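[SOLVED] Predicted holo structure with S-adenosylmethionine

Edit: marking solved, answer below. Original request kept for reference. I posted the sequence and ligand SMILES and asked for the 3D complex as structure tokens.
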Amino acid sequence: MKSSSSAYNLPLFHDPLDNGAEEQETPKPKRTSPLNDLDLNRWREYDDITTDSLWLIPERDRSGAHLADYHGNFVPQIPYQAMRRFTKRGDLILDAFLGSGTSLIECRRLGRHGIGIELKPELAQQADDRIASQSNPYNVKTIVLTGDSSNTVSTPRVITHAVEEIGKEQVQLVFLHPPYHSIIKFSDQPEDLSNCPSVESFIQKFGQVVDVVTPFLETGRFLVLVIGDMYAASEWIPLGFHCMQEVIGRGFSLKSIVVKDMQGNRAKRNLENIWRYRALAGGFYIFKHEYVMFFRKGIRNGRTAI
Ligand SMILES: C[S@@+](CC[C@H](N)C(=O)[O-])C[C@H]1O[C@@H](n2cnc3c(N)ncnc32)[C@H](O)[C@@H]1O
């Protein structure tokens, strides 16, 4: 994947289709997809878009309103990649674990509308302010909701209102970047997935979030799950694969599992030697990766062409 310096520092959405079309002597008809704005006749030009399943991202994109100050945030390159490939300009994105607002900042830059849900009120307010500080060249709407994404009674109602306010009937992309169970404790609230008393209850609550958000997703569109595994009682807990099964079990097809590096993990920073000693002594490997999983709603066996 390209580093932020070349691909992400552009002032506006870099859409190769916006320029150069007249330069072709005999322009071919645009070969588009219902999922994105790319022209497959010009596939060689999209060098900002990765198609590999290993994402080594040397540095985080810190341009615009993106700051790296929220422990547990994801790099903006993740929503950038997902939105470029699986949404069109004017589409609506729903992020059920908004955190510091990374995905909605990226929405403004790429011309997608966005709804984000965050449990912690002060963080939701901070995210809202941060998103508002990002320029909005495509005049998109972004709505930050404070609430519990796993609440199957009240949250669907609130999302419905937000979707209507944006003038849509459904959303075209869902992001799920939940806590990796108890790895980072985000709050003291019992609704917080990082406070689930066991792995089983975490997976069950994660499934509730999937139940809440996926009815809003248009059939044929993508859900992106960003998750890492954990270690507990001397065992590797494959949280990512447990959560993957929750999504597949609800009628989604698995399209890709991307392995992304976790360089510079704050929890491990300055503790490299201690962790290396523990790993050698304890017979395990140190986490250096997380997953970005791509699922498609209601489409199995590739029956619908992209
Ligand atoms: C891994 S972080 C997401 C970070 C985000 N992608 C970003 O870039 O800032 C998970 C977030 O989910 C929130 N959260 C935990 N349980 C939640 C729930 N039940 N409903 C909504 N948000 C929740 C936490 O407060 C935390 O901010």
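OP edit: The pocket of S-adenosylmethionine is lined by residues 70, 72-74, 97, 99-100, 102, 117-120, 123, 148-150, 177-179, 186-187, 191-193 (CB under 6 Å). Thanks to everyone who chimed in.
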